[in-house]
Amino acid sequence: DIQMTQSPSSLSASVGDRVTITCRASQVISNSLAWFQQKPGKAPKSLIYAASSLQSGVPLRFSGSGSGTDFTLTISSLQPEDFATYYCQQYNSYPLTFGGGTKVEIK
Amino acid sequence: QVQLVQSGAEVKKPGASVKVSCKASGYIFSNYGISWVRQAPGQGLEWMGWISVYNGNTNYAQKFQDRVTMTTDTSTTTAYMQLRSLTSDDTAVYYCAREKPSSGKDYWGQGTLVTVSS
Prior knowledge:
The structure holds 2 protein chains of 2 kinds.
Chain A: E1 4-7, E2 10-13, E3 19-25, E4 33-38, E5 45-49, E6 53-54, E7 62-67, E8 70-75, E9 85-90, E10 97-98, E11 102-106
Parallel strand pairs in A: 2-11
Antiparallel strand pairs in A: 1-3, 3-8, 4-5, 4-9, 5-6, 7-8, 9-10, 9-11
Chain B: E1 3-6, E2 10-12, E3 18-25, E4 33-39, E5 46-52, E6 58-60, E7 68-73, E8 78-83, E9 92-100, E10 104-108, E11 112-116
Parallel strand pairs in B: 2-11
Antiparallel strand pairs in B: 1-3, 3-8, 4-5, 4-9, 5-6, 7-8, 9-10, 9-11
């Protein structure tokens, strides 16, 4: 199975900050990488697919990059509604696997 | 608009089975697959498996291989996930998500809480 390692596991940031979350795959997954946002008590929301393509309706302050084994999710200017937990997931091969999550908290 | 609406919360005893439904609307059901993902209390997301609505092919996580069955009913555009031999470790919120193998998940259901308790 492909292991997905996210870092950091949590971070504190202020509104307006630039935030970067990294995700590393244990083997090459091309660009088959998705990012999700989850708020407490809610279903995950899909943000990015194919490492860098935004899902419809996702604000442009979210961006993704990377290929191979190393990926990043960047929020260019953190907004109050962005405080949540973020997960990466590879869909290059079965079983599909998620990273452990990164909780973004208010500083 | 695309919607995935799941069935309501369930309480089950250890050893029982549960069947969660996921009613799809707003798109051509057979053009996408459905993945099932669960989340235990306070934990991360765990992929359980995927079913192709087009041909019924499935791919299950090894962990659930022996006790999960995923099906679809194209006449009602509904996907189902049945999990057998429940234990307390199966207490979790179960999500369905629309998915294409080439582009991953885009829409999610609201989740179904399954509680396993004696």
